[in-house]
Amino acid sequence: MKKLWLVAAMAVAGTMVGCGGSSSGNNGAGETTTTPPPSTETPIPEMPSTGGESGTGFATFEAELATRTIAMSDIKTGGSRFPNFGPQSACENRDYVVAGPYAIQVAFNSDSAGDIDDLKYAAKVVAAAIDDQVAKFELSGSPYTDSITETPLAVCVSTLENGGTFEQGNYLTIEAGKDVSDQYSLAIHEATHGLFKVIAGVDSNGSPGAVKYLDEGKALFAANQEFVSSGDRWRQWFDAGNVNPLTIENFGDNGVDQSNPQYFDLYPFYHTVVRYFISEDGLGLGVQGFFQLVSVGGNRNDFEAAFNARDLGITYADLQSQARSFQEHTPAGDRLTPLI
After folding, report:
1. Alpha carbons 317 and 244: distance in angstroms, whole number
2. What is the pLDDT of residues 279-288, one digit of tens each?
3. What is the pTM of this model?
4. Does the 4-35+47-327 domain belong in CATH 1.10.390?
5. In whole angstroms, what is the distance from residue 189 CA to residue 202 CA?
6. What values do phi and psi take at 18, rounded to 5?
């Protein structure tokens, strides 16, 4: 079977842009996305895996990383790739190294963040994460790898940032001081936001913007983070009058921004929706089919029409209105398939 990249007609933006999350601190240069707080359940090393109520992560990754050979440059002085806004600015003009086949540039945000060996190790973690993302999703030769080859990812390992962010222009931030598996997971999560933007063809100003719940959900899926595996938990969310995750197509919809206590509470639900789209027990798109749908309808203005054109047995409007039923129905007319 030919890969999606060989058969799908795609209007692709040449530069990744930020999405979903707070737009503060970037001088209006596009939105920023932020990873949720880490989970605590014992992880497993596959990406992506079946996940679970508390997420999985990559607890055994450190031992596996030790067996891998990843090209690494000597220290380079005064990196200037980092933009003068947001948490990335802390890495401006810091020493950096270049790692992996996609020449990822990695810097610490301060001289006290670690020595050169620490920097090289962080760079190895990030390069491994990107390599694994490309391999897992069969992205070699895709618009995504074209994008990060033309403008390599610049990764700021920051003592100032809680978690990770993806910002406009191929920049990632991951938090220093986290264990190796968390940094690996963060790098995959944030890089997947860039992947989503490239596939969706969202322009450099973030307009019309990617579908928020799909963008976050796909990043959570890639990084083995939490999803809702309990039908009771899923239904209780709706029965309590909480926000329908399928209505969060834009940052701030229904008042859901980072000032809203439900902002991160919704993340496992976004992930569950993406799993529903991909799973044979859901809409059955598979990963490549999901990417193909995103390639023609990943932005907010086009998604409903692109979804309906796929003739998946339910309209997008009905999918949204029947979202509570994801976990309890089987395919029959307008009824939906369970995930559990």
Report:
1. 13
2. 887 888 888 8
3. 0.77
4. yes
5. 18
6. -75, 160
